[in-house]
Amino acid sequence: QVQLIESGGGSVQAGGSLRLSCTSSARIFSKYAMAWFRHAPGKERELVAAISWSGGTTSYADSVKGRFTISRETGKNSISLQMNSLEPEDTATYYCAATPPYGSEWVPRPEDEIHWWGQGTQVTVSS
Q1: Average pLDDT over every residue of 62-87
Q2: What is 47-71 written as a DSSP string?
Q3: Which of 18, 57, 68, 83 has its CA 20 to 30 A from that of 39?
Q4: By the 8 A CB rule, do 35 and 72 touch?
């Protein structure tokens, strides 16, 4: 069974930074494309950032471009999401996700099926 374990959530004031991490087995990180989603109450789930299994391609939601950075840490079998200039609108539960890729540079899109999900970590940004 695949386990994705998130960490790094918390509470921060607007303008602050947080770094989320997601760890799993080496099998997952060597073969799967990865992504971060978020879900806030009353809103639809949003694909925040995605990264190909090679690490060479990334994509971001327009709402976080220039503020968030997704990266793979191969030696640690993890991905991270560096979140800077946080806004109250970023408040949500953030989920790590993994899915088989359609190529080394393929990244998940919002409509693509996700095979594995983490349990989520809460991020709260106060104004």
Answers
A1: 93
A2: EEEEE-TTSS-EEE-TTTTTTEEEE
A3: 57
A4: no
DSSP string, 15-57: T--EEEEEE--HHHHHH-EEEEEEE-TTS--EEEEEE-TTSS-
Per-residue pLDDT band at 82 (split at 50, 70, 90)? very high
CB of 110 within 8 A of CB of 71? no
For residue 30, the one-letter residue type is S
Characterize the bridge pairing of strands 10-13 and 121-126.
parallel
CA distance 114 to 13: 31
Enter the tokens of residue 13: 């004031």
Which of 55, 56, 63 lies closest to 38 in space, CA to CA?
63
Residue located via tokens 């809460």: 122
pLDDT on residue 87: 98
Rounded Cα distance, 24 and 2, in Å: 8
Residue 46 has pLDDT above 90, yes or no: yes
